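<instruction>
Derive structure tokens from the sequence
<entry> Chain with its tokenised backbone below:
===
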Amino acid sequence: QVQLVESGGGLVQAGGSLRLSCAASGIIFSRSTMGWFRQAPGKQRELVADLTSGGTTNCRDSVKGRFTISRDNAKNMVYLEMSSLKPEDTAVYYCKAYDVLSRYVYWGQGTQVTVSS
């Protein structure tokens, strides 16, 4: 059974920091591209950043220099370090796993991040 469990969300003031974690189980983590997406109320889900098993990252322009994605293949964990948070970063953040061989996609249930001004 595949599980992606996010944690680390919460309420933070603008300019603050948060670290999101995603614990993955039931997938072949080492061949999966791991990513973070977010969805604000009334908006479509959008890519925040992803990271291939080979270490290639992809990050949306609005978070470059503020957010960093990383992974620990030994622990099947992926992280999103967020700093200089802005109210527009408020959203539910979702962890995504993409198995590059089977092409299956898995999603976590999300964690709420709220940035107050």
User: Anything to note?
Assistant: The chain has a mean pLDDT of 97.
